Amino acid sequence: MDKLNYIVVEGPIGVGKTSLAKKLATRLSAGLLLEQPMENPFLARFYEDMARFALPTQLFFLFQRAKQLEPLAQSDLFSQVTVADFLLDKDPLFARITLSGDELALYDRIFETLKPQAPQPDLVIYLQAQPDTLIERVRKRGVDFERQVSEDYLALLAETYTRFFYHYTSAPVLIVNSENLNFVDRPADLDLLMHRIATMRSRREFFNSGG
Questions:
Q1: How far apart are CA 119 and CA 188, in angstroms?
Q2: Whole-prediction pTM value?
Q3: Residues 6 or more apart from 70 whose CB is under 8 A from it?
Q4: Could you tell me which of 4, 63, 175, 204 has the fewest CB atoms within 10 Å of its CB?
Q5: Mean pLDDT confidence for 133-144
């Protein structure tokens, strides 16, 4: 792989993308670009009543993410390595699950307007985990409004991510089975991942550690 200036870590809720993004940014002395879910005033209400609050929740995140990515679209994109924990291209994934009819059509029009302003990453690290693992990790981190997240929703989200990245070709992807990896507490696991990234030779590869 050529030099990586813009790396994105992605995956469903609870898979550990933010934790890994922070570790990668530290290891690479990179800038860090993180989602800010706590700033979304609709998110807690969304988990209580998805049908009612899906559109404002989704649009808030879309505008927020697009705004965060604006500096990367400028001429100084490659002045520093950047690691992010979100991919704008996957934003419609949530919309397809929660919106329909006129609301989905409105979202699609807004997304298509904003999308061209976002640069494509040099590498996407897609973290996978079984729904049971996601549920356990979400419960463990104890965010109040996430207690409303149903197991069925997390399972659907994991399945939808799998379908999305099966068809995703806009950037190289390293698909990582994170079931037996702990990038926060085991430095050796991060070392393994860094080696795997450095030795990538194609645009789609897999990393599966047996633990």
A1: 31
A2: 0.92
A3: 117
A4: 63
A5: 82
